[in-house]
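>> Question from a student workshop board

For tomorrow's exercise we were told to take the sequence and the ligand below, predict the bound structure, and bring the output to class. My setup keeps failing. Could a helper post the expected result so I can at least see what it should look like? The ligand is adenosine-5'-diphosphate.
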Amino acid sequence: MSVTIERGELVSIVGHTGSGKSTLAQHLNALLIPQSGSVTVDGTDVTKDAKDLRGLRRKVGLVFQYPEQQFFADTIRDEIAFAPQNWGVRGRDLDDCVDAAARSAGLDPSLMEMNPFAVSGGQKRRVALASVLSMKPDYLVLDEPTAGLDAQGIRELIRLMTELRAKGLGVVQVTHDLESALANSGRVLVLENGLGVVYGEPEQVAEHLLLNPVEGLVMPPFQRFIAGLRERGIDLPLTSDISSIIDKLEEMRRCAF
Ligand SMILES: Nc1ncnc2c1ncn2[C@@H]1O[C@H](COP(=O)(O)OP(=O)(O)O)[C@@H](O)[C@H]1O
Ligand SMILES: [Mg+2]
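>> Workshop helper replied:
Here is what the output should look like for this input. Compare the format with yours to find the bug.
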């Protein structure tokens, strides 16, 4: 498969457990190097030119599926401060950088002096996200970022990813939630058994999956409803956009009378 992810877009990678989502995500910042094929970031082939891996990892921020795998500091503040401190940010500037990253990630400010391993699953995920945001990456790769969050946390995270995309970052989220992927991304990549099945805009991907179901990926209820209407001769696009469907149905009703 060949996949291009632009700055300013939000791409979702979906697939069944074991389909290779995390493996692919870890190639994007050269944590894994492919045995064949290549990964190019802003024109640099990381498989050939591995000199500046630190620079690359600052450019492509990866938030792990299991956030505690990336923790090593004694306090959440130190965890978030690590990267900017490393390239010389000090004093007030460092505090501002840490606070801004924590705020973006929705982290409770009262937790800053706590041990990152000691907070809840949802807060750990926010610490991991803040510690990557403090690097001010150009691309952000999030491996199952909504796992362990409640409904409100999921909404906030989707809003944050959308904001970062609008600011010009390339954002990649790994998820097994096809419904959220179709509703919230510009493009969706579907993986099955380590191979790319389809990559495209949500409607194209839904059309493909309707004709070629992938094991473990269930068509969301709204798209199933549209497919049911189509079987009854009502021609509608396979979109997640409920209001556009309502408008189309209203138009059809007007034409019928
Ligand atoms: N394209 C691939 N080539 C080789 N091994 C793969 C490939 N995709 C996945 N794997 C292997 O499959 C296993 C599960 O993949 P993983 O990336 O953890 O899946 P997911 O995150 O979708 O659950 C891992 O052991 C990984 O090494
Ligand atoms: Mg995974």
